[in-house]
Amino acid sequence: MDFLDYKYALVTGASSGIGREYAVQLAARGYGVVLVSNQDEANRVVAEQIAAEYKVPTFPYYMDLTADGAAKQLWKWTIEQRLEVEVLVCNAGILLFGRIVAMSTEKLQNIVTLHCTSTTLLCRYFGEAMCARKRGFILLMSSSAAWMPYPSIAAYAATKAYLRSFSRAIHGEMAMEGVRVTAVFPGAVDTPLYQLSEKMRRRLVWWGVMSTPQYIARKGLSALFKGRYRCIPGIFTKISLVACRLIPACVIRSLLRIPAVRRLIG
To answer: Among residues 54, 61, 160, 162, which one is catalytic?
Structure first.
């Protein structure tokens, strides 16, 4: 089958972690995959592995989605390649941890651009074509932090909260056009991001405190193809969301006065 005969899934942040799992699981469903990442070599390796195992066309595309005009450039490239993108997975993300006044302004600009501006524009560009075809799927990776606007993750939580609101709104808009939109709200995920020992990571997964990327991707795609507007994977995450929403701000402020905590957040 010619590569133009395939329907494609485009996954941002596809070179590792949850993004890689989305790419793998979508390839297993028969989609050709466009893998977008700012990690060029790792992205190419993943694309080759997926193509070899699932016998679908893959296109690794190097891009920094925090750059000006990145979303439009990516959209135009898929048109030039004549790739029909039926599934859009906006997974690329940045985690910033620390006091807002101690962060570089460049990093703050990048997280807002990546989580909010580029994601919004990707939904705009690819969503228009999906609505015209009366079929399409858009998955946005938010976070349990969207419900937890607490000190030390201010920019991260706020931009993820934007995705929570944005996804819910366009779910309603695009449903009438046959396009399904789902937001996923994972808690802690077993990735090197947390810099824990392998033994500790295995324990946290076993206890349900952490979820594996495979589990998050599987739950997210299941919710997407069933047309659900929201996916909160894992019992522990659901419980922690309820608990965190009940913790008063004064408790958090008290914790921040502890010297060890102050040193941790900088």
So the answer is: 160
